[in-house]
Amino acid sequence: QMQLVESGGGLIQAGGSLRLSCAASGGTFSNDALGWFRQAPGRKREFVAVIGGSWSGGATAYADSVKGRFTVSRDNAKNTAYLQMNSLKPEDSAVYYCAVSSGYAGAVKLELQYAYWGQGTQVTVSS
Fold first, then answer.
1. Dihedral sign for Cα atoms in the order 67, 33, 82, 10
2. Which one of 11, 18, 113, 122 has the largest count of C-beta atoms within 10 Å of its C-beta?
């Protein structure tokens, strides 16, 4: 059973940067897509970014709201993925989750396409 642990969240001022990490154990994910999602209070969890598995050449996709500001990456040798978040805005405040897909190598964006989820890390951006 794969386990995912996010880290790197915190409180930061608008315009600042944070890098989230997602460490996987209990399995390898090199061939599976790894996605980042977020959920703000009172809102549904939403897609943020994804990086595909090795078979996809590491294809990436982003939500329009973060495109150009966030960058997703992965280090398969370390079983770790990252989400670099720059130019943060108050509306980026949310609990951020990483997830590993259930056998999809492409840059998939739907929650139902993901089998393993972390517990989340809080990101709060002050204005």
1. positive
2. 18
Query: 28: pLDDT confidence band, cut at 50, 70 and 90?
Result: confident
Q: Helix, strand or coil for residue 112?
A: helix
What is the chain's mean pLDDT, rounded? 95
Contact, 37 vs 46, CB < 8 A? yes
Distance in angstroms between the alpha carbons of the first and the last residue of the chain:
40
Of 40, 42, 35, residue with least CA distance to 56? 35
Q: How far apart are CA 48 and CA 7, in angstroms?
A: 16
Question: How far, in Å, CA of 5 to CA of 97, rounded?
Answer: 9
